[in-house]
Specification:
- The N and C termini lie far apart (87 Å).
- The chain is built from twelve helices and six strands.
- The chain has two domains: 219 residues, Rhopdopsin 7-helix transmembrane proteins (Up-down Bundle), CATH 1.20.1070; 155 residues, Reverse transcriptase/Diguanylate cyclase domain (Alpha-Beta Plaits), CATH 3.30.70.
- By secondary structure, the protein is an alpha+beta fold.
- Strands 2-3-1-4-5-6 form a six-stranded mixed sheet, sandwiched between helices.
Length: 389
């Protein structure tokens, strides 16, 4: 098989992907990693074009520069993957060092002791290492939203590692005559690399689209100021938890927290201070509750806490801790008093989500009518305010 035909076809396919990387963001703005992927594709095109010019261009361009561009392309794909997954790229520095270190060996086996076999082994070895680290980055990603797409793209990387390893073995067993007139083994590798390279790039675009969609879903379900759930998301979680409790008979606690006289804080100190108070109160909620509890900014200055598998006594203790911790926030600003009225309730059998919320809300307003800075528990017997300091 004549090498230029393979390389030029590969370059044409990569060029189409590069065009796609410049078209897709126009319809889906904000995709992560597309800029880095575009650079990776541009370097890959440069590499395969130079490789295709092997019969006519000097070895400096078609061997050293072409392989350096190919390594840089694979490292950029590794970097792109890290950007899409919002992770660090710890191997990047080591990868750059590895790629630089093998270039003198390429020069040695090009001009001092010309031999194509060591060059193939070096090239496939470097690419296998970079593909391995990219796959590892994908396999370690724990996001449930990207789990399937991340594992699929990781599978492409594992396939690339296996392809390079097999190529090294077959190159040693069946050395090629030269790099221009490829044998069937090297031709098969070239086509395999073509297919996997395009699949990896398409997979990264798919991964970026999935990440973008997940981010939009998170934005639609979270409060931008506190990063807690918003009201819509909380009510969805409440409905699911109540259905779980109906089937299993488990307990479910609910706490509603409303800051006292919050309008006065905004009027006196400004909305920036008010926003900071909201953020600090959300920090109190996160610090006191468990990871499995659902937290939400339910309204302007109202918060909701859902407590799976918690009884009335535990719910009251958590509510009291919340009230006391929120009151402690006033110590940071002596001229501003921050307190909260709290209502708590435990799910009753055959109760609907709206009835559960309404009962807890009524307990909250009993705290306000009783003097604020109180916790009121809606129990099966009667609503009773707890003592406040």
């Amino acid at each position: 098989m004549y090498l230029p035909f393979v390389m030029w076809g590969y370059a044409a396919a990569l060029a189409l992907l590069l065009v796609a990387c410049n078209v897709i963001p126009r319809s889906i703005p904000g995709l992560r990693g597309i800029r880095e992927l575009s650079w990776a594709l541009a370097l890959a095109i440069l590499s395969v074009v130079l490789l295709g010019l092997r019969p006519w261009a000097p070895a400096l361009l078609t061997i050293l520069v072409a392989n350096a561009a190919l390594y840089a392309s694979f490292l950029l794909i590794y970097r792109t993957t890290a950007v899409v997954l919002r992770q660090d790229a710890p191997f990047l520095g080591w990868g750059v060092g590895l790629c630089i270190a093998v270039l003198p060996a390429f020069g040695y086996y090009t001009w001092v002791r010309p031999d194509i076999v060591p060059r193939i082994l070096l090239s496939s070895g470097v690419l296998a290492v970079v593909a391995f680290w990219t796959g590892l980055l994908l396999f370690r990603h724990r996001s449930a939203d990207l789990g399937y797409s991340a594992r699929t793209v990781a599978g492409f990387q594992v396939s690339a590692v296996a392809l390079h390893v097999v190529r090294c073995i077959l190159t040693v067993l069946y050395p090629p005559r030269d790099f221009v007139h490829l044998g069937w083994i090297q031709t098969g590798f070239s086509y395999g690399q073509l297919i996997l390279g395009i699949a990896m790039c398409c997979g990264i675009i798919w991964l970026s689209v999935c990440e973008h969609r997940s981010e939009l879903e998170r934005m639609a379900l979270t409060d931008p100021l506190t990063r807690l759930l918003n009201r819509r998301a909380f009510e969805e979680v409440l409905g699911r938890q109540m259905e779980r409790c109906r089937r299993s008979g488990a307990t479910l606690g609910l706490i509603l927290v409303d800051l006292d006289h919050f309008k006065e804080i905004n009027d006196r100190h400004g909305h920036f201070v008010g926003d900071e108070v909201i953020r600090r109160v959300s920090g109190v909620l996160i610090r006191i509750t468990r990871p499995l509890d659902a937290l939400a900014r339910y309204g302007g200055e109202e918060f909701a806490v859902l407590l799976p598998d918690v009884g009335e006594e535990q719910a009251e203790q958590i509510a009291e801790r919340l009230r006391a911790e929120i009151e402690q926030l006033s110590q940071d600003a002596p001229d501003m008093k921050v307190t909260a009225s709290i209502g708590a309730a435990i799910r009753r059998s055959a109760e609907t989500p709206s009835e559960f919320l309404e009962r807890c809300d009524e307990a909250l307003y009993r705290s306000k009518r009783a003097g604020r800075n109180l916790v009121t528990i809606s129990s099966s017997a009667s609503d009773r305010p707890s003592l406040a300091v």
